[in-house]
Amino acid sequence: MLGPHLLKRRRGLLRFLCIPGQSEILKIRKLYDAFRAEFPLCFGYWKKYADHEGRLDGVNKVFEVYERAVLAVTYSVDIWCNYCQFAISTYNDPDVIRRLWFQYFVG
């Protein structure tokens, strides 16, 4: 398990890699995956990762990140709000949002 000093170093590296215009997506994914493996409940980093994917690789990857996020941090209201807000802004179709809602909350 990472100690506080390694957590601080990883956060610094994430900040460096997340500079707008940075395009080494495979390295960024690897770093985020390593960080989230150690700290899966840091919901803010799920959001940052989704935003980064959206800038560099498109909508489908963002949905994949949010799908993984809601499985890892199921009870995070922030993650759910971000996921639903993203879905609403991406698809102007209430049926898509309804399916998302029922998939996780009802079914």
Automatic annotation (TrEMBL):
The keyword Nucleus is assigned to this record: yes
Keywords: mRNA processing, mRNA splicing, Nucleus, Repeat
GO molecular function term, any single one: pre-mRNA 5'-splice site binding
Chief location category: nucleus
One GO CC term, this protein: commitment complex
Single biological process term from Gene Ontology: mRNA 5'-splice site recognition
Cellular compartments annotated: Nucleus
Pfam families according to UniProt: HAT_PRP39_N
Alphabetized InterPro entries for the sequence: HAT, TPR-like_helical_dom_sf
Family: Belongs to the PRP39 family.
Protein name, as recorded: Pre-mRNA-processing factor 39
Species: Triticum urartu (Red wild einkorn)
